[in-house]
Amino acid sequence: MDRLVRISGNRKAHGLPSSTVATRLSTGDWPPADHELRVIKRNRKVVSGFLQTAQQNLPGLFFKHYLTRPSLFSRRAAKRIWRINWSLHNQGVPVPRPHALITGNSGVWFITEAIEDAAALTERLADNALTPGQMQTVTIEATRAIAHMHSLGVIHGDLKWGNILVTEELTPVLVDLDSARQRWRVSARAGAKDLARFIVGGLEQGLNTAWAARICSVYCETRVLSETTIYETMRPVVRRISLRHQRRYGRRPVSLDTDPEYPPNDNVPNSK
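Above: the chain's sequence. Below: its structure in token form.
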């Protein structure tokens, strides 16, 4: 039997999508039927997409359904993801607002608000939806969000460009915090390693090392850190990530040592 572990908002306010989930659980109307789910990603471990609500005027809900057997480990991991998402949201980091956490025989369901009309940063770039100036603005704002997250003691763990949504208002939103970890503090070295994944995404999209240096500068301004320390820490990490991407995905090599030899947006494969 599935059980509601966490929920946001007022459970008795039945106009809220979160209380709709609670009501369905209390009446045994869970898990949702296939026709109620708009799946956008599926593999052997997780299914994610949008939960269709009967009331059209309610905000949409996004779900991640972890296809795992109920266990103490999976329940603890789910609670960790909820706790980190809720903490970041409450402290102003742009992440989706958590709505409900459900565990039980059907697996683990993590439900958040849907970010309407948003697309991954990779998709915005592939569609030529951003001008060079807008790209600079979005990536700088994303960097400030990453720095804010790190200042709160959270490491994301997977800052690929596919995990950064961009709204129609060009606001970046950090998503997919499955690998996130809460620490007492994020050191300069740990923060640089997390940021390096974001830097690799930009370099693989055709942005150059001048852009990377600007991102490093913004990050250090936000956290009051040494640019030299952060940049030099990222240098070998960027090389390692790039080498791994070359082997796995056949991508072009990138580094912080020299400018890429290809122009921006020159059919560079999207960052995973």
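DSSP finds seven helices and eleven strands in the chain.
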